[in-house]
Specification:
The protein is mainly alpha-helical. The chain has seven helices and no strands. It has helices at residues 12-24, 28-45, 48-55, 72-99, 102-116, 122-133, 139-142.
Length: 143
Amino acid sequence: EAYIGRYPTASEARLQRLLFIAETSKDLEVTRQALELVERQCKATSNTRRYKDVFGPGSTTHTAIPGLLYDAAWVNETETVNQNMLRSLEARVATVNAQLNKDGIRTAYLSLGEFHHPRGEIREAMRALLRSRDYCTTRNQTA
Protein backbone atom coordinates (compact mmCIF):
# COMPACT_ATOMS: atom_id res chain seq x y z
CA GLU A 1 0.00 0.00 0.00
CA ALA A 2 2.78 2.44 0.85
CA TYR A 3 4.74 1.66 -2.31
CA ILE A 4 1.77 1.84 -4.66
CA GLY A 5 0.56 5.09 -3.07
CA ARG A 6 2.98 7.01 -5.33
CA TYR A 7 0.82 6.27 -8.35
CA PRO A 8 -2.39 8.16 -9.16
CA THR A 9 -5.37 6.24 -7.79
CA ALA A 10 -7.17 5.38 -11.03
CA SER A 11 -4.20 5.18 -13.39
CA GLU A 12 -3.36 2.37 -15.75
CA ALA A 13 0.27 2.54 -14.57
CA ARG A 14 -0.85 1.79 -11.01
CA LEU A 15 -2.91 -1.15 -12.19
CA GLN A 16 -0.04 -2.58 -14.25
CA ARG A 17 2.39 -2.15 -11.34
CA LEU A 18 0.01 -3.96 -8.99
CA LEU A 19 -0.31 -6.83 -11.45
CA PHE A 20 3.47 -7.00 -11.80
CA ILE A 21 3.83 -7.16 -8.02
CA ALA A 22 1.16 -9.87 -7.78
CA GLU A 23 2.78 -11.98 -10.49
CA THR A 24 6.39 -11.68 -9.33
CA SER A 25 6.08 -11.64 -5.55
CA LYS A 26 7.06 -14.80 -3.73
CA ASP A 27 5.24 -13.67 -0.57
CA LEU A 28 1.64 -14.89 -0.64
CA GLU A 29 0.42 -12.03 1.59
CA VAL A 30 1.90 -9.37 -0.71
CA THR A 31 0.32 -11.10 -3.70
CA ARG A 32 -3.06 -11.17 -1.93
CA GLN A 33 -2.85 -7.48 -1.04
CA ALA A 34 -1.86 -6.53 -4.59
CA LEU A 35 -4.74 -8.53 -6.09
CA GLU A 36 -7.21 -7.00 -3.63
CA LEU A 37 -6.04 -3.54 -4.71
CA VAL A 38 -6.37 -4.58 -8.37
CA GLU A 39 -9.91 -5.76 -7.72
CA ARG A 40 -10.79 -2.56 -5.87
CA GLN A 41 -9.38 -0.37 -8.65
CA CYS A 42 -11.09 -2.35 -11.41
CA LYS A 43 -14.42 -2.03 -9.64
CA ALA A 44 -13.90 1.67 -8.92
CA THR A 45 -13.10 2.47 -12.56
CA SER A 46 -15.54 -0.03 -14.12
CA ASN A 47 -12.64 -1.73 -15.89
CA THR A 48 -14.39 -5.01 -16.66
CA ARG A 49 -11.89 -6.03 -19.34
CA ARG A 50 -8.95 -6.09 -16.92
CA TYR A 51 -11.11 -7.59 -14.16
CA LYS A 52 -12.07 -10.51 -16.43
CA ASP A 53 -8.43 -10.99 -17.48
CA VAL A 54 -7.23 -11.20 -13.89
CA PHE A 55 -10.13 -12.81 -12.01
CA GLY A 56 -12.26 -14.38 -14.73
CA PRO A 57 -12.70 -18.02 -15.60
CA GLY A 58 -9.52 -19.49 -17.02
CA SER A 59 -7.28 -16.96 -15.29
CA THR A 60 -4.34 -18.35 -13.34
CA THR A 61 -3.34 -15.10 -11.62
CA HIS A 62 -5.51 -15.43 -8.54
CA THR A 63 -6.07 -19.18 -8.21
CA ALA A 64 -3.55 -19.63 -5.36
CA ILE A 65 -5.17 -16.91 -3.24
CA PRO A 66 -8.18 -18.00 -1.15
CA GLY A 67 -11.05 -15.56 -0.84
CA LEU A 68 -10.71 -13.89 -4.23
CA LEU A 69 -13.76 -14.83 -6.24
CA TYR A 70 -14.95 -13.75 -9.67
CA ASP A 71 -17.99 -11.48 -9.36
CA ALA A 72 -19.99 -12.31 -12.51
CA ALA A 73 -23.01 -10.29 -11.39
CA TRP A 74 -20.91 -7.13 -11.06
CA VAL A 75 -19.33 -7.72 -14.47
CA ASN A 76 -22.70 -8.17 -16.20
CA GLU A 77 -24.26 -5.16 -14.48
CA THR A 78 -21.26 -2.92 -15.14
CA GLU A 79 -20.99 -3.94 -18.79
CA THR A 80 -24.67 -3.12 -19.28
CA VAL A 81 -24.20 0.30 -17.69
CA ASN A 82 -21.05 0.88 -19.76
CA GLN A 83 -22.80 -0.05 -23.01
CA ASN A 84 -25.69 2.29 -22.25
CA MET A 85 -23.28 5.12 -21.43
CA LEU A 86 -21.29 4.45 -24.61
CA ARG A 87 -24.45 4.54 -26.72
CA SER A 88 -25.41 7.81 -25.09
CA LEU A 89 -21.99 9.36 -25.75
CA GLU A 90 -21.95 8.15 -29.36
CA ALA A 91 -25.45 9.55 -29.88
CA ARG A 92 -24.23 12.86 -28.49
CA VAL A 93 -21.34 12.86 -31.00
CA ALA A 94 -23.77 12.12 -33.85
CA THR A 95 -26.14 14.88 -32.71
CA VAL A 96 -23.49 17.59 -32.53
CA ASN A 97 -21.98 16.40 -35.81
CA ALA A 98 -25.37 16.94 -37.45
CA GLN A 99 -25.51 20.44 -35.96
CA LEU A 100 -21.96 21.22 -37.17
CA ASN A 101 -21.12 22.77 -33.81
CA LYS A 102 -17.30 22.65 -33.60
CA ASP A 103 -17.04 23.21 -29.86
CA GLY A 104 -19.82 20.71 -29.19
CA ILE A 105 -18.13 18.10 -31.38
CA ARG A 106 -14.82 18.68 -29.62
CA THR A 107 -16.32 18.31 -26.14
CA ALA A 108 -18.32 15.25 -27.20
CA TYR A 109 -15.14 13.53 -28.41
CA LEU A 110 -13.33 14.54 -25.21
CA SER A 111 -16.16 13.01 -23.16
CA LEU A 112 -15.89 9.84 -25.21
CA GLY A 113 -12.14 9.70 -24.55
CA GLU A 114 -12.71 10.26 -20.84
CA PHE A 115 -15.19 7.39 -20.87
CA HIS A 116 -12.73 4.93 -22.44
CA HIS A 117 -9.57 5.84 -20.54
CA PRO A 118 -10.37 4.61 -17.00
CA ARG A 119 -11.68 1.35 -18.42
CA GLY A 120 -8.28 0.55 -19.88
CA GLU A 121 -9.42 1.10 -23.45
CA ILE A 122 -6.42 3.27 -24.27
CA ARG A 123 -6.58 2.89 -28.05
CA GLU A 124 -10.22 3.99 -28.20
CA ALA A 125 -9.51 6.89 -25.82
CA MET A 126 -6.62 8.10 -27.97
CA ARG A 127 -8.73 7.79 -31.11
CA ALA A 128 -11.44 9.97 -29.58
CA LEU A 129 -8.95 12.53 -28.28
CA LEU A 130 -7.21 12.76 -31.64
CA ARG A 131 -10.55 13.28 -33.38
CA SER A 132 -11.30 16.11 -30.97
CA ARG A 133 -8.17 17.94 -32.14
CA ASP A 134 -9.73 18.37 -35.59
CA TYR A 135 -12.36 20.60 -34.01
CA CYS A 136 -10.11 22.81 -31.87
CA THR A 137 -10.53 26.49 -32.66
CA THR A 138 -7.91 28.04 -30.36
CA ARG A 139 -4.38 27.20 -29.33
CA ASN A 140 -5.40 26.61 -25.73
CA GLN A 141 -7.75 23.80 -26.78
CA THR A 142 -4.95 21.80 -28.43
CA ALA A 143 -2.51 22.00 -25.53
